[in-house]
From TrEMBL:
UniProt cross-references to Pfam families, sorted A to Z: Allantoicase
EC class (word): hydrolase
Entry protein name: Probable allantoicase
Record key words, sorted: Hydrolase, Purine metabolism
Entry's EC annotation: 3.5.3.4
């Protein structure tokens, strides 16, 4: 079973790939005279303070371009194709499930229409390389309204590293959110221990018993919480149950250490916590299979405003964890240091490989040792939904010069280096 976080809930429950905390940034724009394009990525909702004027007019909390004009007195209006744009480098690459284009507080100065495009550009591209990239429509040109959070679902299954917001002919957009499934390059994780629950590697808080005061997505957010409101806090319980969060890990992995951080929670930290694991790699469903959960960390006493670092004995691999707090309260961060299992690394690599643009997939295969012809044929055979399909696709490649058996072994070794299957 794949551990891909296919959204059963609205796409807004997935990771915001355009979060500054994850490393996103506005890397290019053609015009932001009135208000900086970087405002698109500010984490908090847009604000409006009337009659706050700067040297360029009313100060707007968003991206706003100047008013476009035509070419002369006989053509004072812009053409139908004249438009402004801003390119955002996603904090983490991934498959985009939905975007929000929010024109909050832009009422007489919002764009008439807009679109969102995606591109996959490996490495650290320059502005010139961004301009030359192949851009794909994720949200086609669509009419926009003022003071509205426009939600657009995206069906494209490609892994993208950048998005471009286009607006016609000019105007202002307050915020841009890009929600999706993180798909890290597995080669970057080989041989490493890392936080299996972290958003930047694909961890997602899938469900929670309570999110009254703040979101469970804060638990595996990047960085340390700076105030209490940046953690996960539940309401006060008046029964004998407990609160919990379920997190899908980056992949099947062995959890080696836990950090439970109650920083800033002084009078409202939980009294105790424990951690359970679930291995869905064989096809189980953690939402319904209550008998499949096993103990990773026994119920442990917590202290307020404290980073608790706890080592775990080597044990069973898990694809999901359930973090239980007793009876209620707030936790700033949960960190699960561990390493991917062999099967977990392979499953992550297959999801990544299937989502790459064809040229990138072929380049990755040639880098692993296949010929250009073999790489092109295997890239065209995607999706490789599992190890069996990957092995069959490798076996179906036409042999090159030399004994067929040796050539098949060479190809299999090259694919193993890249995908682990």
């Amino acid at each position: 079973m794949s551990t891909s976080q296919t959204p059963a809930a609205p796409f807004t429950e997935l990771v915001n790939l355009a979060s500054r905390l994850l490393g996103a940034g506005v890397v290019a724009t053609n015009e932001d005279t009135f208000a900086d394009a970087e405002n698109l990525l500010v984490a908090k909702p847009a604000e409006f303070r009337p009659h706050t004027f700067g040297h360029k007019g009313q100060i707007m909390d968003g991206w706003e371009s100047r008013r476009r004009r035509g070419t002369g007195a006989d053509q004072p209006h812009p053409t139908d194709e004249d438009h402004d744009w801003a390119v955002v480098r996603l904090g983490v690459a991934g498959r985009i499930h939905g975007v929000i284009v929010d024109t909050a507080y832009f009422t007489g100065n919002y764009p008439e229409s807009g679109s969102v495009q995606g591109a996959s550009i490996p490495g650290h591209p320059s502005v010139a390389e961004l301009a030359d990239a192949e851009w794909t429509d994720l949200v086609p040109r669509t009419p926009l309204r003022g003071d509205t959070a426009h939600e657009f679902e995206v069906a494209d299954t490609t892994r993208y590293t950048h998005v471009r917001l286009n607006i016609w002919p000019d105007g202002g957009v307050a915020r841009l959110r890009v929600y999706g499934e993180v798909l890290p390059d597995p080669r970057d994780l080989d041989g490493l221990t890392f936080d299996l629950a972290a958003q930047e590697f694909g961890g997602v808080a899938e469900a929670a018993s309570d999110r009254y005061f703040s979101s469970p997505h804060n638990l595996n957010a990047p960085g340390r919480a700076t105030v209490m409101g940046e953690g996960w806090e539940t309401r006060r319980r008046r029964d004998k149950a407990n609160d919990w969060v379920q997190i899908a890990l980056a992949g099947s992995g062995e959890v080696l250490a836990v950090e439970v951080d109650t920083s800033h929670f002084v009078a409202n930290a939980p009294g105790w916590a424990d951690l359970q694991g679930y291995d869905a790699s064989s096809g189980g469903d953690p939402a319904t299979d209550t008998a499949g959960w096993f103990e990773l960390l026994p119920r442990t006493r917590l202290q307020p405003d404290t980073r608790h670092r706890l080592r775990l004995a080597a044990g069973r691999p898990a694809t999901h964890v359930r973090f239980n707090v007793y009876p209620d309260g707030g936790v700033a961060r949960l960190r699960l240091t561990g390493r991917l299992t062999e099967s977990g690394r392979a499953a992550l690599a297959l999801r990544w490989f299937d989502a790459l643009p064809a040229a990138e997939a072929a380049a990755a295969l040639t880098g692993a040792g296949l010929t250009a012809a073999e790489a092109g044929a295997l890239a065209a055979a995607r999706p490789l939904a599992g190890p069996a399909q990957a092995a069959a696709a490798v076996a179906a490649l036409q042999p090159a010069d030399g004994p067929d058996g040796a050539d098949t072994s060479r190809r299999a070794a090259a694919v193993w280096r890249l995908l682990g299957v």
